[in-house]
Amino acid sequence: MGRLIRKVFRVVLLSLFTGVAQASSINTSSGWNMPVGVTEISREVYGLHMIILWICVAIAVVVFGVMFYSLITYRKSKGAKAAHFHENTTVEIIWTAIPMVILVLMAVPATATLKKNV
Hints:
Elements: H1 2-24, H2 40-73, H3 89-116
């Protein structure tokens, strides 16, 4: 079974690297990406757009990686028993605080760009 997991992991990694390579080569003529602007503020907004896009891609890679790892490692056919934890305040605070911190960190450069150009 370890071979299957390694093969799945390799396929996922290959797909990920292929997707990142294709995403970085997307041009605006395809209509999939925001066009680079002519003015200084529009170029800054485009830069912010690209930074936030890659932050979102990194978050998605981590979340889906953990999800697929958990699905493969702890599947029922392997005999794993599910843990029962209910109303764990610490876990709830952590998974609320982390997205909030990420949003604040993404809002800081956006706010700075808006304040600079107003």
